[in-house]
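Good morning C.,

I know you're traveling, so I'll keep this short. The sequence:
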Amino acid sequence: MWRLTHLLALEDGPADVIAKIRARAGSGSLGELMDCFDCMSVWVAAGFAPFVAGRPRERAVSLLALSGVACALQRIAASGEEQDLDLMAHASGS
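The tokens, ready to paste straight into the viewer:
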């Protein structure tokens, strides 16, 4: 789930396919959705929720839980990237 959301919101994709879709979406509602990891995670989670839970009430909770986990993983990954950049800057003497 995190991987698909990351691809759609933050990566260019193979042969820049996702970047082209994002560019066509422009600055409208769809374009803003595709630029926001947290927003995109809700929509991606909506596609997975029916496979995780059977009843509608459980699906709603699953959707929020899946989106929350994806957002938490993104924050962990982003903080790790910042630490990697700090280590590289320190190693190069910058």
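Safe travels,
E.
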